[in-house]
Amino acid sequence: MTTPGKAGSVEFHPERGYRCSPRVALRPEPFGALAYDFGTRKLSFLKTPTLVEVVRGLEDQPDVHTALDAAGVPADQRAAYLRALAGLAEAGTIEPR
Amino acid sequence: MTDVLPGRAVTGARAAGATPKPRKLVDHFKEGLTSPICLTWELTYACNLSCVHCLSSSGRRDPRELSTAECKAVLDELERMQVFYVNIGGGEPTVRPDFWELVEYAVAHHVGVKFSTNGVKLTPERARWLAGTDYVDVQISLDGATAEVNDAVRGPGSYDTAMRAMRNLADAGFTGFKLSVVMTRQNIGQLDQFAEIADTYGAQLRITRLRPSGRGADVWDELHPTIEQQRGLYDWLLAHGEQVLTGDSFFHLNALGSAPLPGLNLCGAGRVVCLIDPVGDVYACPFAIHQEFLAGNVRGEGGFARVWAESELFTRLRGPQTGGACTSCSAYDSCQGGCMAAKFFTGLPLDGPDPECVKGHGEQALRAVVAAPRSDVDHSRRGRRAAVPVEISFGPPAGSPERARPDRACDTSPLAGLR
Fold first, then answer.
1. For a surface tag, which of B195, B238, B396, B409 has the fewest beta carbons within 10 Å of its beta carbon?
2. Cβ neighbours for B254, distance < 8 A, ≥ 6 positions apart
3. pLDDT interval class at B152 (50, 70, 90)
4. E-assigned strands of B342-394?
5. The pTM is what?
6. Residue B69's pLDDT band (cuts 50, 70, 90)
């Protein structure tokens, strides 16, 4: 799980600290949340409430792995969550801090 | 012209999801969201043009239009609801004297703005102001890649106005604004030319479907693309779809093939989309200005938020829908029965085929239609023919409403019908 996830051109390093971009607003929705990037004017969807919790919690945790633990992501779903986060990093929704 | 779904916002939305997916996102959308994703707000019915296909039958200002203070109160509410941006249209929104003030107010309150305009007020100075303002996007309407085709629908001089506006935006360094085209029988063959125009000005092409809404009902028979043209459009979209915005408006074409067009591909009316009209009435979608699709008014108690969350109409639209006569069709899963407004204003049942059903079921159903509903919301300027009819001839074109449709009940003048 320490291999940097790679999505497109932006590398994702889950062993580092991240945060939800200050340009991004999250709106709670029944499925999770809608993420709107005021900088790129792009909308994305965080498709589970747990993913929303992870994204919101990134800022308070030393690294992404700890944020996944804190949100209670089960072991068998971690890979999927890391992929989703790599996608969010690629889109600029989350960024290294 | 106004929008249904925002271009990039939905067609380009990336679904950043994790594996545990109890339900598909689109199923959540069908049940409605906490706030709209795509809100169209028509600020005025006043317009300097009289496009023959105007979906809101605009022309004259309505004396009951929301005041500046009321508009700002709506924007406050949208900020609270986290509606991240609005598509502002009309009428021609820029003819409102407080238009720029409202745009500034919106962006200062974290509500981004994309406004549709025919370009009439986009002077070089204004274009520079826009280029320097964050969270504002502009959409220029043009319905022909040549003046001849455009002006026949939008009126004399409107092609030049739009081109000048795009030149001003480009000169001001405003890139990525939208060039918005309603697809008609006359301009659908110009798709590549539209793409070239967009490239020339550093704009992005956006094409949407002609709806039989507003005055569009009058010209739909003559202007809507033929079945062959629809097929050509589908192929063109499959080839260029990622570069071109569609407002998700062609999902009925998905029945043509196995490759779905990019986008959400569902009717968002009352679920993720709605319209606020100039007098504050809230309709299920911009193409559905009719009593039947009126959910409430922002001036009512609880404002827009309550209409969105609690209106009886929206609750119904978010409930289970039946495919009706379409359920047995093999294509239903991909086309979802098409566009509610297109069906309604052509007199077809809402649980039946779309009038432009690519399987031909719509055409068949249309033959049985005796009368189509008309909206009584009409701000068309009286006493003058809208734009030049597409086919120049004496008298109203064959099959035009002047012949086929009765006058509106409120037109009691003995001269009614001699527009």
1. B409
2. B260, B261, B265, B331, B334, B335
3. very high
4. none
5. 0.85
6. very high
Report H helices in B155-266.
Answer: 158-171, 191-200, 216-223, 227-240
pLDDT of residue B394: 41
DSSP B112-178: EEEEEE-STT--HHHHHHHHTSTTEEEEEE-S-SSHHHHHHHH-TTHHHHHHHHHHHHHHTT--S-E
pLDDT digits over B269-282, tens only? 999 999 999 999 99
**Does B137 reach chain A within 8 Å, measured CB to CB?**
yes
User: A5-96 has which CATH code?
Assistant: 3.90.930.70
Q: Where are the domains of chain A?
A: 5-96
Nearest to B16 among A25, A29, A87 (CB): A87
Q: Flag whether residue A71 sits within 8 Å of chain B, measured between CB atoms.
A: no
Closest-CA distance, A62 to chain B, in angstroms, reads 22
User: 10 Å Cβ neighbour count for B164?
Assistant: 16
Helix, strand, or coil here: B282? strand
Contact B135 A38 (CB under 8 A): yes
Distance CA B125, CA B131 (A): 10
The CA distance from B245 to B72, in Å, is 29
Cα end-to-end span (Å), chain B: 23
